Each structure stands twice: as C-alpha cells, then as structure tokens.
C-alpha cells in the first residue's frame, strides 16, 4: 500500500494520512439510545445523546420510527440497483464534487492512498437531473429511495434538535440549516455495495472495504444488515497504535456517528470518530456487503460556527468541498 504524501488543506485531513495501518482490536460498548416517546422524553434523550457523542462519537438508535419493512425495501432496491449492468450504471455517473450518481472503486481515502473495494450510488435530491435509472430499468426505485431519504432526514433532525438544545441554539436551528426544500440542500443518501470476497486472491485482502476516515457531515445515520459486519470504530486519534472496536450490525437499530461538521459546530465538544470497514476474515461471511448511510450535511449556504466561536465562520459548502476534493480520484 502506498501512502499519499499530499498536503491536504484541513488539519483533520493531514491527520487522516497517518491512519492506514491495521492496529489492534478492543471491545467497547456502543450506547443504545431509545427515541420512543420523543417529545416527552426529549431532555433525557438529549442528555444520553450528548454523553455518547462526547465520549465515543457513536451511538445506536432504537425505536427510531422508520418501519423495518421500509428499511428492508430500501436494501432490496439497493441490491437491484447494483445488479444492473455496468453499462447501465455508467449512464448515471458521479459528478465531481456533487455527491450524486454512481462510482466504481474510485474513492481513495487519504488514510490508505488506495481505492476502497466498493461501488456506490449517491442520492442528493437537488442534484439528480439525469441520474435516476429509468422506470424500465428499475421500477419503483425512485419513489422508494426518495421516501427513505426523507424518513432518515426526519430522524436525523430529531437527533440534531437535541444537540441544538444542548448547544443553546433554537430547537429547529439544525432543521432550518438542513432545509430539504431549499435549492442549496446537500444531505445525501448513499447506497453502498462492497464487493464479495468469495474466490478472492490473497492480494485482494491487503486493501480495505472502506479505509479509515472521519465523516465530513454533521451526523451519519447508517443502516446495516445483520450478518454483514466489518464496521470498526476508533475513538481518540492520538494513541500511537490505534485500537479498533467492531460494531456488530444489529437488527432494527440505526448506527449513528458525529461528523467533522458538527464537531466544528460544537466547538469541538462532540467527537467525530475515526471508523473504517475491514475485509472479512476467511472464516467469516464472504459474500457482498450492502449498507445505507444517510449524511446530514447542512445546506450549502449555512454558516458553520459554534456558540463559543472558537473557529472562524465557514459556509457548509466551502467546508464540504475541501473534504470531497481530497476523497475522490480524477
Ligand atoms: O458501510 C459502512 O458500514 C460504513 C460506511 C462509511 O463509513 C461511509 O460511507 O462513510
Ligand atoms: Fe463513514
């Protein structure tokens, strides 16, 4: 594996170039947080979210309100999308810096310098002109995915309203900053297909399904399928040898993590935790792995600045562009 010697423009990125190694593993508990009876229990839920996000940067939501049937349908549609021919998917290519469209093994993480062993299709609803597969190619896909996108948005906004409470912002501060009806909306639903490792050659195991990174959004909501593990997290970037924790995909939960944008917006109080997706070991399930992250990314014109103003203000657009430019080849 070669290490990129690029000089990235944000401090987080320079740090990320040093995280490519395998490291050790360590068991840690990822807190589960129940969103049931949300309005009544909001203060208690906000305390739990704050604790998890200042201590480990990850938590799993239960009773989040998205019906399991809708999650299963989104996964079924995702499998159908990736089963389309290469030529069909290539009609809907990822545009540079847009988080919209399909890419195949093109995401190079600063941590590893090699392409992730995956393909993805990203849905940023405001940028999807000519990027949806046709109704003949994939009937029902657009309606199912747009509904799923909005269901995730709604859960994300509930969680963010708790952080607004804790940070002293108005209750809907982040909901307004992620307004889906504004033309500068840029939250993204990502469909991921990690390639199967059945009949893989030993050299195929040297890479990563997704190299170590922090997310660049405010909050990520990740849907995983039981039996398709591999996600690992590592709080604390300062240790000389990193200790990684497996996050088991449990049925019915949404695994969430804080991203760099909310870390900055909270004046570094909330942790944006390093994570990655490792290759399966040869005694584990070797088939394809699908996952569905939804990235709450504040609208392009939103100004990111915490209540203590420890960082200068930056638009969410400028912030994201610096991160995207460093992650996709070409
Ligand atoms: O697929 C996963 O489990 C995690 C994906 C991820 O971390 C990402 O896309 O940012
Ligand atoms: Fe991630």
Describe this protein's structure.
Keywords: Ethylene biosynthesis, Iron, Metal-binding, Oxidoreductase. Pathway: Alkene biosynthesis; ethylene biosynthesis via 2-oxoglutarate. Residues 184-298 form the Fe2OG dioxygenase domain. The protein is of the alpha+beta class and 330 residues long. It contains 8 helices and 15 strands. The protein is 28% helix and 20% strand. The strands form 3 sheets. The chain has an 8-stranded mixed beta sheet. A 5-stranded mixed beta sheet has the order 1-10-9-12-7, with no helix packed on it. The chain has a two-stranded antiparallel sheet with strand order 14-15. The longest helix has 27 residues, at 141-167. Fe (ii) ion (FE2) binds next to loops. Fe (ii) ion (FE2) is lined by residues 213, 215, 220, 275.
* List of distinct ligands in this structure: 2-oxoglutaric acid, fe (ii) ion
Radius of gyration based on Cα positions = 19 Å
Mean pLDDT: 90
Task: Give the overall shape, derived from the CA principal axes.
Answer: globular
Percent in strands: 15-25%
CATH class category name = Mainly Beta
How many helices?
Answer: 8
Total individual domains: 1
* Largest sheet data: 8 strands, mixed
> What's the end-to-end separation, in Å?
19 Å
CATH architecture: Sandwich
Classify the fold: give the CATH topology. Answer: Jelly Rolls
Question: CATH homologous superfamily - what is it?
Answer: B-lactam Antibiotic, Isopenicillin N Synthase, Chain
Low-pLDDT ranges: 1-8
- List the secondary-structure elements in sequence, H or E: HEEHEHHEEHHEEEEEEHEEEEH
**What structural class is derived from the secondary structure elements?**
alpha+beta
GO molecular function: 2-oxoglutarate oxygenase/decarboxylase (ethylene-forming) activity; metal ion binding
Protein name: 2-oxoglutarate-dependent ethylene/succinate-forming enzyme
Catalytic activity: L-arginine + 2-oxoglutarate + O2 = guanidine + L-glutamate 5-semialdehyde + succinate + CO2; 2-oxoglutarate + O2 + 2 H(+) = ethene + 3 CO2 + H2O
Pathway: Alkene biosynthesis; ethylene biosynthesis via 2-oxoglutarate
